[in-house]
Amino acid sequence: MMMSKKKETMGRQRIPMVRIKKETHRQVTFSKRRAGLFKKASELCTLCGAEVGIIVYSPAKKPFSFGHPSVESVLDRYLSRNNLSITQTEKPQGNAAASSSVLNVELTQIVSQLEEEKKKGQAMAEMRRANAVRWSMTNWWERPVEEMNMIQLREMKSALEELWKIVVSETSTARQLGLRM
Predict the structure, then answer these.
(1) Is the pTM of this model over 0.70?
(2) Which residues lie closer than 8 Å to 61 by C-beta, 6 or more apart?
(3) CA–CA distance, 86 with 176 (Å, rounded to integer)
(4) What does the pLDDT look like over 55-71, one tens digit per residue?
(5) Are 52 and 74 in contact (CB under 8 A)?
(6) Can you tell me the distance from the alpha carbon of 178 to that of 181, in angstroms, rounded to the nearest whole number?
(7) Is 126:67 a contact under the CB 8 Å cutoff?
(8) What pLDDT digit, counting tens, does each position of 19-39 carry?
(9) Contacting residues for 55 by C-beta, under 8 A, at least 6 apart
(10) Cβ-based neighbour number of residue 26 at 10 Å
(11) What is d(CA 123, CA 31) in angstroms, rounded to the nearest whole number?
């Protein structure tokens, strides 16, 4: 009979859209969501050729920005209400627009690869944890004494005491039968 493994985490859950009370949690959430926002903006630039400018201030009042082709060019265009994009107003020197698009595609691919590697690393860490649990539950007597926890040490003591009783009993039985030890 196979026992189902109890789920260890709550998984991905919807969180209520209210200010996070604990400052450290708020900072962690900000960092993760900022990275996600910038990634989505980069994908929008790559897929659609959009010009994007994002400026975000952290809860600690530190500014972060993302822009394609640059935050300054997008802001200048917005503030001047000029509907012409920077690529339409300036002739790219050489193949600057094309190389920028190529670099954006490469960046998106590298970020995707990084995320895949992180997932692989997490899976490997989980396998190591499972192996460690399995190792601690089986063949504990083969491990060095220094690596044993208190429960394993007590089990080992009990097993050695049982073994001692068996050896004493067998020795006395052998002596009674006249066998040499």
Answers:
(1) no
(2) none
(3) 104
(4) 999 888 899 988 888 88
(5) yes
(6) 9
(7) no
(8) 989 999 999 999 999 999 999
(9) 63, 64, 65, 71
(10) 15
(11) 23
